[in-house]
UniProtKB/TrEMBL annotation:
Enzyme class (EC, first level): transferase
SUPFAM superfamilies referenced in this protein's UniProt entry, alphabetically: Trimeric LpxA-like enzymes
Swiss-Prot/TrEMBL keywords: Acyltransferase, Repeat, Transferase
Entries under PROSITE patterns matching the protein: HEXAPEP_TRANSFERASES
EC number per UniProt: 2.3.1.-
Family: Belongs to the transferase hexapeptide repeat family.
Record domain Maltose/galactoside acetyltransferase: where: 4-57
InterPro entries: Hexapep, Hexapep_transf_CS, LacA-like, Mac_dom, Trimer_LpxA-like_sf
Gene Ontology molecular function, alphabetical: galactoside O-acetyltransferase activity
Name recorded for this polypeptide: Acetyltransferase
Organism (species): Clostridium ragsdalei P11
Span of the signal peptide: none
Length: 201
């Protein structure tokens, strides 16, 4: 079993193995290239497709961005991310259509064991000691707005038509049609027609 297969199987893996370092290095270099380009440069946005697992035809990243693998992230149509999108996609991340992310949003599909010896002293076949990780997928539905400074942890499912309030730390699933916020983030109430802002037109 390869290290990447271990990730997808939910097992401990060694993120320092060359197999994984090579994938990440390519993505990190492309993120750096993207971040150095002017936002009006027409060659900027197509860079995303060079490392992404899948993304729709219409998308926008304000930048700067940082993906870990990139190829483990799958995004639908009409995606928008504001400044400082951080995507730690060791585990797979699935994002639906019409999703908006505010500034400083982090999707964190990776974790470490709690027991120190398991986290920093795991020995592998070749005898070296590694920092061990494991990963859980993140699923984000359609028509979701994730406001600024939100952290979404691995293993979380966010339903359709959800709004995640600013500064939230999402550790549990959020059902469809809810506004949710807090640390830890909790569903507060269902979004209704009373929330309409059409009167501001």
């Amino acid at each position: 079993m390869t290290e990447e297969e271990k990730i997808f199987a939910g097992r401990l893996f060694d993120a320092r193995k060359k197999e994984l370092l090579d994938i990440k290095h390519k993505t990190h270099m492309l993120c750096q290239k993207f971040n150095l380009l002017d936002e009006y440069d027409e060659s900027r946005l197509p860079i995303i497709k060079e490392f992404m697992g899948r993304i729709g035809q219409k998308y926008y990243f304000q930048g700067p961005i940082q993906f870990n693998y990139g190829c483990h992230t799958f995004i639908g149509e009409n995606f928008v991310a504001n400044f400082n999108a951080t995507i730690l996609d060791d585990g797979k991340i699935y994002i639906g259509d019409n999703v908006m992310m505010g500034p400083n949003v982090s999707l964190m599909a990776s974790s470490h064991p709690l027991i120190p010896e398991e986290r920093i002293a795991m020995k592998y076949e070749d005898g070296h000691v590694s920092v061990s990780e494991y990963a859980k997928e993140i699923h984000i539905g359609n028509n979701v707005w994730i406001a600024c400074n939100v952290v979404v942890c691995g293993g979380v499912n966010i339903g359709d038509n959800v709004v995640i309030g600013a500064g939230s730390v999402v550790t549990k699933d959020i059902p469809d049609n809810y506004i949710a916020y807090g640390n830890p983030c909790k569903p507060i109430r269902i979004i209704t027609e009373k929330d309409s802002k059409l009167g501001l037109l």
